[in-house]
Amino acid sequence: MAQNWAAREFESKLQEALQRVRLVLDETKQPQPAAEVHHTYQDKYLLVEYLTNSAAASQLNCLAALGLSPEQLSTLRQWSTIPTPKEFKDAIESLSPEQQSFAKAFRAMQLESTLFGILASAITADHA
Fold first, then answer.
1. CA–CA–CA angle 118, 55, 107 (5° rounding)
2. Which superkingdom is the protein from (predicted)?
3. What is the pLDDT of residues 83-100, one digit of tens each?
């Protein structure tokens, strides 16, 4: 019962959004829900890729509007990169034991606080 209501509510909101989009778009373009348009299997992946890129660009625009410089945006991107277990092991190999301990603790904190880390931890635990 609740699922049917949620589905109807979603469909209603989708139709309202489509009406607003039609007002903005040229008359030659008619946006439609993906399920109602003939498409190939690969089109679904292309749609997801397009929407993901759009969301990422939107986030970058918001951060730039808040005053972050290109250098600061680049730094944020570097901070979000988590090395693979092998890359991490190779990177800390030449450090002192104290530095390795700190690096391992920092990596554990990164992995605990990111979705990627949660998924990577689960996969690593399954294959250990």
1. 25
2. Eukaryota
3. 788 888 998 999 899 999
Q: Which amino acid is at 12?
A: S
122/128 Cα distance (integer angstroms): 10
Q: How many residues does the chain have?
A: 128
H-type helices in 1-128, by residue range? 2-24, 41-65, 70-79, 85-92, 97-112, 115-127
Helix 97-112 and helix 115-127, axial crossing angle in degrees, nearest 10: 110
pLDDT per position as a tens digit, 42-84: 888 888 888 888 888 888 888 888 888 888 888 777 766 777 8
Q: In sequence order, what are the residues at sequence separation of 6 or more whose Cβ sits closer than 8 angstroms to the Cβ of residue 88?
A: 103, 107
